Amino acid sequence: MPFKRWITYRSLSSQSYDIVISGGGMVGTAVAAALGNSPLLKNKKLLLLEAAPRKEYAKSSTFSNRVSALSPASRDFLKGIGAWKLIEDSGRFKAVNKMYVWDACSGSDIQFTQTEESDDHLAYLVENDLSVHSLSTLLSQQADRVEVAYGTTVTQYGTDNITSPSQPMKISLSSGQTISARLVIGADGFNSLARRSMGIKTTSWNYDQVGVVATLKLDKQEDGNVTAWQRFLPTGPIAVLPLSDDTSSLVWSTTPSHAKHLLALSPEMFVDELNHALIDNSKMDGMVSIVEDQYKKLLEKFGSFATSHEDQRTQPLPPTVLDIDKESRAKFPYGMMHADKYVAPRLALVGDACHRVHPLAGQGVNLGFGDAECLVRTIVNAVSLGADIGSSEHLVEYETERQRHVVATTAGIDGLYRLYSNNWTPVVLARSLGLMTVNALTPLKRLFMQHAQT
Predict the structure, then answer these.
(1) Is the pTM of this model over 0.85?
(2) Which range marks the domain in which residue 145 is found?
């Protein structure tokens, strides 16, 4: 998805701001747009700083290889600030009605389906560039509310000057200017300078996996390509996520050496290896299959509790990949990081600045949008009470609420990664029986769905 880039160098309109958002990615731009959308903040000076030059969005006939599966909660947040309508009007998104997950080492699987009583889809696949463009369009409509400075990097946060609760934070910019803010929102990514400046410690590690992404061309899908597919291979999960009626996005998590091999293949050989990986059953454990068959019979005795849909008892075939966008293949590393604190005097962290997760559950940007919604709500509440927006007394409410959700989600995702990275027969058996149980018991499956969608 092409962009035109340019930088406009100019002085900022003020040396003093109420709120400065550092980082103009999806989450940072969402925070700025949501703040600018609040009537209670109409008299506040708001500034968004983005190190990259401004980009002009141009709709392309091909899809970007960087997409996100937005949860219903993220969709609702974007709808509330006006960005979702712009995404809808573009026609460049795909609603997911079904999700099928299965284990290559066993016969266990689980299917999630949009319920008849809910208008929500399971997820919405949107290109990252389109999300940023829609949010940036909102900011251009709020030019009198939110100032935006592209091509401007923060070189230093003057944290030493905060010697009393009433003092603002000083911010030194690459342009040579120095400004101050009553509150800095650090949306500046995994290597956040805002976080490091305040001495906030993190717990982190790298996974021995990388993600290979590509845009796929599929054969015709009877359901209109509304199903997301994920298979757990011995080397890592492989996900095929719908983008249009005949196009999907690939995220293939694998070892660094295998990723290097995949990127070196010709497009035709890559497609062959991908299709084989989606249907190959040579890694199936015979002992596990025998126990699974007996366990299925046991579950059938709990018919009043088990899911009754006929499609839950059959294993559908994944789509056949016909071709790939030749320029779409790329790779990126995986890691986990969690900040000990999300807030400090005059500072609040959001998105990758305070947490990073394995993408196997597609929760990265959803956690970030959850941060954005919660932080904006906390700030608006503080303003309505006439409180200091940069006071830790109010910011800690944001930290407490978000850490309860993020820590649980991060631990769950890391646990899944470790569970499916172990192919010892007893472990394969345990996870298979667990997956079968969740799939059979409707109330338990709904709990998993509810957590993933918030």
Answers:
(1) yes
(2) 3-452
